[in-house]
Write a structure and sequence with these properties.
With 220 residues, the chain is an alpha+beta fold. The protein is built from 5 helices and 9 strands; from the N terminus they run αββββββααβαββα. The chain has one domain. A 6-stranded antiparallel beta barrel has the order 1-4-5-9-8-6. A 3-stranded antiparallel sheet has the order 3-2-7. The protein is globular and about 40 Å long. It starts with a helix and ends with a helix. The N terminus is likely disordered.
Length: 220
């Protein structure tokens, strides 16, 4: 249970700036691909503790399950509980503590989102990297052992998280949404990928080829 200070700080600094017009029904069924223990300490707003790190198997409005990742160390949630107080908002419209979070999370999901589903260690590493991006405000490269947000725990997961944070790359080809709740953990998830410019060119070329073949057959 957090203090009222934590609730006020979280509401102020990790608030949604654009809220959907209706509430979504959300159920977290458990860890999607396993988890690993991680200790966390955030300086401002202050919070610390130990938790399992890993993506959640998430069901939104009765649809198919997908993996989501916690972006809120100030709240809690329970598995197999039907929540009706969540709203969905685009990540680039969400007010993160780190102003670069939305862009860097997009790069993280683009580079390593698929790998995060292959093992408990990778899922824990991805979740830890998400927390670091969301809660880090110090200038310079991301670091799990210094700055505003610090993490310890499962060595393999932390090592991989550090490696991924150090090589995010420049590509950002995913759409990210946040499921926001005033009383429970906020989570982030990827929707359909954004086609790269080269993909549009290939699709256009393919359509042109199909049209050319169709015209030749008609002429014959």
């Amino acid at each position: 249970m957090k203090t009222s200070f934590h609730r006020i700080a979280a509401a102020t600094l990790i608030a949604c700036t654009a809220v959907a017009a209706h509430a979504d029904n959300v159920t977290f069924l458990g860890y999607a691909n396993g988890s690993a223990p991680v200790n966390f300490a955030v300086t401002a707003p202050a919070t610390s503790g130990s938790t399992g790190a890993g993506g959640f198997s998430t069901q939104l409005n009765g649809g198919p399950t997908f993996a989501s990742f916690c972006i809120d160390l100030y709240e809690h949630l329970s598995f197999n509980t039907a929540y009706t107080d969540y709203t969905s908002v685009a990540a680039n419209s969400f007010s993160f503590l780190n102003p670069n979070a939305a862009a860097d999370l997009g790069r993280l999901f683009t580079a390593y989102g698929a790998v995060s589903t292959t093992s408990a260690t990778n899922s824990a590493a991805f979740q830890t990297a998400v927390w670091e991006i969301v809660d880090e405000t110090a200038a310079g490269p991301y670091s799990l052992t210094s700055g505003n947000a610090q993490f310890s725990g499962d060595a393999a997961a932390l090592a991989k998280a550090s490696m991924w944070l150090g090589s995010l790359g420049t590509m950002n080809t995913v759409n990210l949404n946040v499921l926001h709740s005033d009383g429970h953990q906020d989570v982030i998830y990827a929707t359909t990928a954004v086609p790269e410019p080269g993909s549009y060119a290939l699709m256009a070329a393919g359509l042109a080829a199909i049209g050319f073949v169709a015209r030749r057959r008609k002429a014959a």
